[in-house]
Amino acid sequence: MDGDEPGTIRPGGRTARVRTAVLRAAGDALAEQGFDHLDLADVARRADVGKTTVYRRWGSVTGLVADLLTDMAEQSLPRARTGSLLGDLKANARLVRKTLTDPRQGPLFTAVIAAATCDARTAEALHRFYETRIKEWAPCVDEAIDRGELPAGTDAEEVIRAVSAPLYYRLLASGDPLDAATADRAAEAAEAAARAGVFVR
User: Per-residue pLDDT for the chain (201 aa), expressed as one digit of tens each?
Assistant: First the structure.
């Protein structure tokens, strides 16, 4: 495994427990203090792990954040299968809303997104995270095409992006409430646009 980047190893046993403890500590610190104040020594102290272990395995704050995002993508709930496109898109929107309004996850995402604007490695990790989540949910659009709910050639990934974009806008830009009605409305708008052929390639 010598060729692996720091933070990309996913072993079992004690090493897995160390990774879990360090990533939880990193998430807590990030949510509380933001990216600028994230410190590997502080994370090691919070996780009750030796500093040398953290420095050797993750190498840098950005390496740690990249692994945290990988872990978050791996731990995300699987997509819903409701049998209708609107039902699936509403489930997606509600999951995004739940994550963004969570007392821990919301500030954590805000901190990571802010860091990604000025740190290339964090931006790359964030892009991988969203790519993973979009690919997880895109099949619900393909299934809707197969059922005849949407026109052939609809770009499934663009439909999923259209669901979450208004929710992230409220979190990061407008500060407007992120309630259940907002989540449902985002899903309804994306579904209506998809039915109208807006996302046909």
Answer: 334 444 444 445 778 899 999 999 998 998 888 888 889 999 999 999 999 999 999 988 888 888 888 888 777 767 888 999 999 999 999 999 998 998 888 888 888 888 888 888 889 889 988 998 999 999 999 999 999 999 999 999 999 999 999 999 999 899 899 999 999 999 999 999 999 999 999
CA distance 99 to 107: 10
The stretches of the chain forming alpha helices (DSSP H) are: 13-33, 40-47, 51-58, 61-75, 85-101, 105-116, 120-137, 139-147, 156-169, 180-195
- 79-195 is a CATH 1.10.150.80 domain: no
- Residue 55 CA to residue 18 CA, distance in Å, equals 13
Q: Residue ranges of the domains in the chain? A: 13-72, 79-195
Q: Six-digit token pair at 56?
A: 């050797």
Q: What is the pTM of this model?
A: 0.80
Taking CB atoms within 8 Å and a gap of at least 24, the contacts of 52-58 are 53/18, 54/22, 56/6, 57/6, 57/7, 57/9, 57/18, 57/19, 57/22, 58/6, 58/7, 58/22
Question: Class assignment of domain 13-72?
Answer: mainly alpha
